[in-house]
Amino acid sequence: MLRAIYIAGHGTESFSAFVAGHGELWSAQILSAVLRKGGVDCTWMDTRDVLIVTPAGSNQVDPDYEESEQRLNNWLSNNPSKVVVATGFIASTPQNIPTTLKRDGSDFSAAIMGALFRARQVTIWTDVDGVYSADPRKVMQYDIPIVIRNIFNLSAPGTKICRAPVIEVEEDKQKLVAYVKGFATIDNLALVNVEGTGMAGVPGIASSIFAAVKDVGANVIMISQASSEHSVCFAVPEKEVKAVAKALEARFRQALSAGRLSQVAIIPKLILAAVGQKMASTPGVSATLFNALAKANINIRAIAQGCSEYNITVVVKREDCVRALRAVHSRFYLSKTSIAVGIIGPGLIGATLLNQLRD
User: Fold this and answer.
1) Is the pLDDT of residue 186 over 60?
2) DSSP assignment, residue 173?
3) 205-215 and 238-251 helices cross at what angle (nearest 10)?
4) CB atoms within 10 A of CB 159
């Protein structure tokens, strides 16, 4: 296959997917052999024989769960064993052409297999001790908990992502920490702002904007629009923002020249901070978040919140990122802060305080 790619001078996507999949094929066979040598009843699975996916974009696929479940049952009946080491990342199209699960495909394949097996739990082994936030809606269809564990630090408990909290501490229920579970940031974003008086009340403006964005294959991270309909802003990766701006200016050239749209503005070097989980119908969470950022003297460029109330997204300057995270973490009591205290010239009162601290 590599020789054919060399002769042709380029590799198609299906060629590349076939070649890239061999890392998974080899590692699965090696691990299975090690387990068998240790006395484990084990076999390995080439998931290209089981997982069927349909391309849904340049970097996305949709699993065919019905066909995959049928193929899995057939595979299991022909390969009985107590342990199965399945390849990650690779699958097949409905035409049985080898493909991959695209970006983050190994984690995705673990989630798919967990759903097909109706697993009690899915564990993602990675190189960090856990995750510090997660979209609470990204819990699998069958309410299967997902655990993130560090393969290089087995003593770390990891992070469990599930629909309901594992343990609800009674005395904590009145605290905001019970509602906000974590914060996440996405680096290297730019904000695109399309505005003009001619946008208000005009059907199809938003559709045209995002059709142009789709045409260049850009990923929209966040969308914000006020009820005045005077402007629409959205966040995209910085590497895609020039193509987005060019596509929008071409799509709205007539509206821009006529003054119905005043500008397509690019605001670079932004970072997106998201707050998530168990905030629904809890008064005061948004106010606490914005108050924490205001006290840290951090300006918010855009805000988005879905009606599910599970997530608030704010856009701030990249240089404000660390201060923003520290401010909100401190305000929501998600991290402990150490304070150094020095006592100069302790007399009777200072000495008494030192004794109290020692006791």
Assistant:
1) yes
2) T
3) 130
4) 20
